[in-house]
Each structure stands twice: as structure tokens, then as C-alpha cells.
């Protein structure tokens, strides 16, 4: 059985080893992609793979756990072991990672006033319940038990959020109590304030840094911090940022291959590194994160390509070869090989076979939840996707003031089926004047609210805007209205199967479009969304993620494992009143001009 220790060097079976690692998120790709990705990491010259573990995918509903399919962390770690890679796991309850709510589950928001990432007993009780299930799966994978896992993370960039050492201490003790006996670490930015706040160096928890440039300067900051605490540990950058994430409506961020290779060379000369990301993958479903800039929330795109060494679909890039060369220059004894390539194909064009307005089929999709005052998305559902609020207002036969109080994130307002306005978190509360049909006693008000992604980093993490849907209420004239029906729209397999495509079409309203077709062959491909407005695409019941004509991405990556030889069904949920007539596949990603 191998051993791993952290002394003045990383020691594998007592011999010094430099960790050359890359981040691959098992949950951002289909399991069939894992092997090629892991092989290409090893062929780069790496000896280690790192991954986060997001709490919210493994416990999507409190007390209900899921480790199947692309959520099978045990299978992923065993795949890495077969590839003779060591594994670094980051099971911290918060991961950031441009992932919805930084990995925290939305159901935590049901309990008012709970302080996240703190010793609040209510929070730590939930952490314990989760860790009892998760860590029981991870314990046998540790190197101390014959597995490949050499280190685990206690918390992630905690110094960029809080400074409660007792919270870190309780998390450490909980992990150790539940059987974690490999070295533990924290990772923070490379400056004194966050290192002071976010580490447990005084309790011998290994300290790592996160950065993507100025390698030697940042390494020296880490070294000096350790020296002040009388530690002589090796230097490691736990997230060596080789690219960056992207947001809707902003240009794609790129980094030159030679610039990265030069910095990687410098980093390997002074320590170890984990390339973040090696293979980025995809924010499937409703799991994209959101940035916060002042009072504005900036949701991130479905693609997590990250301008990484492998593309979103797993193809080696110019960066791959440049970094591979840099690794060989500093570490001439590493094993390297040609990476595996990825073929992407165009699978044709298919007409829409049926469509239906959401308003016509809503009662078939999900049983409406009645309440006097509006329920948030967390109270009435899972907290992800969409919530439709249906309300009957008295028709006073003249213009009436309407105001939606405290809501997030994006609300489309329909009066008697007509689109009146779209408001965002920053504009919610602005007063509207509405008028119903003169021949009706009531006004049918439908509000389609979308959670476009919870903030995953920074001061808003504990903020009130993390709760989605309508938090305050709807005001008609100057009073709060009573009487709501809520329809939580998670667009899971059961809801998709319940759509009644015969209930009535109206392309000016949010609508479902069905495309059925046969394929003689399957392959990795892209779905061209450049003629669509905003919505999601579900392939044979699997939610690929969001599209939006804001760009920069105007297509969705579709792995071949989601398609069938023979019959296929794709359902597009389009919210912008754009009539969809065709589904077009593409052999390459499409971007806005």
C-alpha cells in the first residue's frame, strides 16, 4: 500500500514527488467522457487529477441523495485510479466553481436566518447529515485504504468570505470523526488578509493558494506566510487559472497559449500546481453560477469551456501542447504521449413536430400550489428552473397600477395572455400600468419567473436575493393582492413527459416545441440556437442547459451519449415569444457576431 505525506516535500512512499495535476469535474460531463479526459491529462505529463464535489447535486432535496450517472463520484475516482493518477478531492460544502450557489443546496434557504458557512448549529447539522453519507463513500478511496485519494479540502477560499476559525475547526473535526485520515488542506488567494482569515495553519492544515499568473511572486507570498507560522511545507497552487469563465452578453475571455506555458514553467520550478481547468465541461441543466458586480447579478453561460487545455467537448487545444512542452522542460522524466482527439459531427436539420403554450398545458405539467400570498421557488419547489405564478385580479375596466415587490431573478409579465413587460432583479418593483379585456370581470395575470443562477462567490452568498421567485408580493393599485397558484417548472423527465402538445398553440407565449426524429448514427454535436430567443433544450429527457440570444454562446454542446440510434425526442422551452420551426445540429460551436 502506498503512503502520502506532507513534510518539506510531498512524499509518496517516502520519496519526494512534484504534484502535476489538472481539474476535471465529473459532474460537468457524461461518464463516457471521463476516460478520454483522464487519459489526456496523464498524456500531458500529469500524475494527479483534482475535482470539486458539489453538495447540491448529491442532495438536491434535503435527505434525498443521488450518486448515479454523472454524479457517481466513486466511479470517477476509480477511473482515475485505473489510469494510475493520484486524486485530490474537494468535498467542502462550498466550492464556488461558477456553480449554482457555489454548490450549496437551494433548500438551505427554506430556513430563515440560517448563517451559511458558519457554526450556526442549523447549518452544521445539515453539513453533518450530508457528510455522513458522502464521506462514507470517500473513506475507502483514500490512499490509506489502498485508494488513489491523497488529500482532501476542508473549505474553499474561506478567507474571501469569512474568518470564523471555529467553523473551519468544526468541519475538520467532523471530517476526521467520519474517517478522513489523508492530509487536509485549505485553498485561498495569495495575499495575507485572506490567508490569515481562511487557513487553519496553526492546526497543521496544509495551506495552498489560488492564482494564475506571477507564479514566483505568489509562491513567495505563500512561503513567507508559512515561515511566519514556522512551517516548511512545499508550495502548491491549488487552482492555477489557465483560462476564465464567461457570462451572458459579454465577450469570450481568452488567454494566449505561450503566456500560460511560460507561467506554468515558472510555477513548476518552485512548486506543484493544479491546472484549473484542465477540462471544463458543461453547466448542464440549471446549475450555472452567477457573478455579482455591485448591485447587478451577471449569470454565467452554459458552456464551461473555460478556454482550458481541452475544449468543452474534450479536444486538445494549442494550450495543451504548449503546456505539455513546458512540463517536459522542467520535469524531463515525466511520461507523456499524444492525446486522444475528439470528432464532432453535424447530424442534420429536423422540423418541429408539435408545440404548445405553457399557459395551456401548465395543469398537466404539475399540480398548482394554492396560497394566499406568493411562495418562493424554494418554498413551493426545488428552487431551480422556473416558477409560474397565476393570479386573478379584479378588472376595474380602466388602467391599474401593478408592482411586483422583492422578486428574483427575471420575471415575464403576461396580462390576459399578452406580454406586458420583462423585469430583472435590478428593475423589479418598477410600477406598471395594466388594463384587462373590457368584456371580462377578472384579469388573468401570469408571471413566469426564472432563477438565472444564484451568486456563487462574494458578499451576496448569504444575501436575500439568493431566494428566488416572489419574496414580497404583487401590488394592485396600492394594496397587496391575495390568491396565488404556483407552478414549479423543473423540466425533469416526468414534467416533460406530461406536456400535452394538443392543448393549444400560441407562439407569442412561453411555449414547448417538440422535435422527434430518427438517427442512423450518433456522435458529439452542437445544437444551433442562434435563431432562438431564450430557454432550455432537453434531449431525450436530459436538460442540456440554457441558451440566450444575448450571446456570446449561440449553441449547446450535446454529447453523443444523450442521443439514440433510432428514435429521439428533443423538447425546447422557448420563453421569448419566438416561434421555433426547426432544430439544426452543427459540427462546431456557434458564437454571436
TrEMBL record:
Domain of life: Bacteria
Domain Beta-galactosidase galactose-binding: 510-568
Reactions the enzyme catalyzes: Hydrolysis of terminal non-reducing beta-D-galactose residues in beta-D-galactosides
Domain Glycoside hydrolase 35 catalytic span(s) in chain numbering: 10-329
Keyword Hydrolase assigned: yes
Residue stretches making up the Beta-galactosidase 1-like first all-beta domain: 374-489
Keywords, ordered alphabetically: Glycosidase, Hydrolase
Similarity annotation: Belongs to the glycosyl hydrolase 35 family.
Name recorded for this polypeptide: Beta-galactosidase
Organism the protein comes from: Enterococcus larvae
Upper classification of the organism: Bacteria, Bacillati, Bacillota, Bacilli, Lactobacillales
Amino acid at each position: 500500500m502506498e503512503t502520502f505525506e506532507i513534510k518539506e516535500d510531498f512524499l509518496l512512499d517516502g520519496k519526494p514527488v512534484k504534484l502535476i495535476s489538472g481539474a476535471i469535474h465529473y459532474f460537468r460531463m457524461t461518464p463516457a467522457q471521463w476516460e478520454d479526459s483522464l487519459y489526456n491529462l496523464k498524456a500531458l505529463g500529469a500524475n494527479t487529477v483534482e475535482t470539486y464535489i458539489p453538495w447540491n447535486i448529491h442532495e438536491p432535496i434535503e435527505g434525498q441523495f443521488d450518486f448515479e450517472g454523472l454524479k457517481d463520484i466513486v466511479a470517477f475516482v476509480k477511473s482515475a485510479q485505473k489510469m494510475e493518477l493520484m486524486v485530490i478531492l474537494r468535498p467542502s460544502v462550498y466550492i464556488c466553481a461558477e456553480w449554482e450557489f457555489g454548490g450549496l443546496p437551494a433548500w438551505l434557504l427554506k430556513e430563515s436566518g440560517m448563517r451559511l458557512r458558519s457554526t450556526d448549529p442549523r447549518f452544521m447539522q445539515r453539513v453533518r447529515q450530508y457528510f455522513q453519507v458522502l464521506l462514507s463513500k470517500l473513506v475507502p478511496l483514500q490512499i490509506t485504504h489502498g485508494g488513489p485519494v491523497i488529500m482532501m479540502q476542508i473549505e474553499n477560499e474561506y478567507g474571501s468570505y469569512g474568518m470564523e476559525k471555529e467553523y473551519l475547526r468544526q468541519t475538520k473535526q467532523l471530517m476526521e470523526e467520519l474517517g478522513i485520515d489523508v492530509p487536509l488542506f485549505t485553498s485561498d488567494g495569495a495575499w495575507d488578509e485572506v490567508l490569515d482569515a481562511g487557513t487553519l495553519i496553526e492546526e497543521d492544515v496544509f495551506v495552498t493558494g489560488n492564482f494564475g499568473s506571477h507564479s514566483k511572486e505568489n509562491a513567495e507570498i505563500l512561503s513567507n506566510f508559512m515561515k511566519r507560522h514556522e512551517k516548511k511545507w512545499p508550495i502548491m497552487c491549488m487552482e492555477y487559472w489557465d483560462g476564465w469563465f464567461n457570462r451572458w452578453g459579454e465577450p469570450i475571455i481568452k488567454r494566449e497559449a505561450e503566456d500560460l506555458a511560460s507561467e506554468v514553467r515558472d510555477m513548476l520550478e518552485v512548486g506543484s500546481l493544479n491546472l484549473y481547468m484542465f477540462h471544463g465541461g458543461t453547466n448542464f441543466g440549471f446549475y450555472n453560477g452567477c457573478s455579482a458586480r455591485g448591485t447587478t447579478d451577471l449569470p454565467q453561460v452554459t458552456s464551461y469551456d473555460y478556454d482550458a487545455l481541452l475544449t468543452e467537448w474534450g479536444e486538445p487545444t494549442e494550450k495543451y501542447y504548449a503546456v505539455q512542452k513546458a512540463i517536459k522542460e522542467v520535469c524531463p522524466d515525466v511520461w507523456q504521449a499524444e492525446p486522444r482527439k475528439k470528432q464532432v459531427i453535424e447530424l442534420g436539420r429536423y422540423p418541429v413536430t408539435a408545440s404548445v403554450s405553457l399557459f395551456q398545458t401548465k395543469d398537466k405539467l404539475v399540480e398548482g400550489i394554492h396560497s394566499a400570498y406568493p411562495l418562493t421557488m424554494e418554498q413551493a419547489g426545488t428552487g431551480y428552473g422556473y416558477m409560474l405564478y397565476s393570479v386573478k385580479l379584479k378588472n376595474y375596466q380602466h388602467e391599474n397600477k401593478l408592482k411586483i415587490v422583492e422578486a428574483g431573478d427575471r420575471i415575464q409579465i403576461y396580462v390576459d395572455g399578452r406580454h406586458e413587460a420583462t423585469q430583472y432583479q435590478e428593475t423589479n418593483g418598477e410600477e406598471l400600468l395594466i388594463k384587462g379585456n373590457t368584456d371580462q370581470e377578472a384579469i388573468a395575470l401570469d408571471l413566469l419567473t426564472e432563477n438565472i443562477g444564484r451568486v456563487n462567490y462574494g458578499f451576496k452568498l448569504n444575501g436575500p436575493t439568493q431566494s428566488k421567485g416572489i419574496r414580497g408580493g404583487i401590488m394592485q393599485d396600492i394594496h397587496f393582492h391575495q390568491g396565488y397558484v404556483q407552478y414549479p417548472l423543473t423540466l425533469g423527465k416526468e414534467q416533460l413527459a406530461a406536456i400535452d402538445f394538443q392543448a393549444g398553440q400560441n407562439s407569442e407565449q412561453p411555449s414547448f416545441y417538440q422535435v422527434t426524429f430518427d438517427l442512423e448514427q450518433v456522435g458529439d454535436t452542437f445544437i444551433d440556437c442562434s435563431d432562438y430567443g431564450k430557454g432550455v433544450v432537453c434531449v431525450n429527457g436530459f436538460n442540456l442547459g440554457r441558451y440566450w440570444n444575448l450571446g456570446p454562446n449561440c449553441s449547446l454542446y450535446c454529447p453523443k451519449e444523450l442521443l439514440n440510434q433510432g428514435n429521439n425526442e428533443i423538447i425546447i422551452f422557448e420563453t421569448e415569444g419566438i416561434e421555433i420551426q426547426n432544430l439544426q445540429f452543427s459540427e462546431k460551436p456557434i458564437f454571436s457576431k
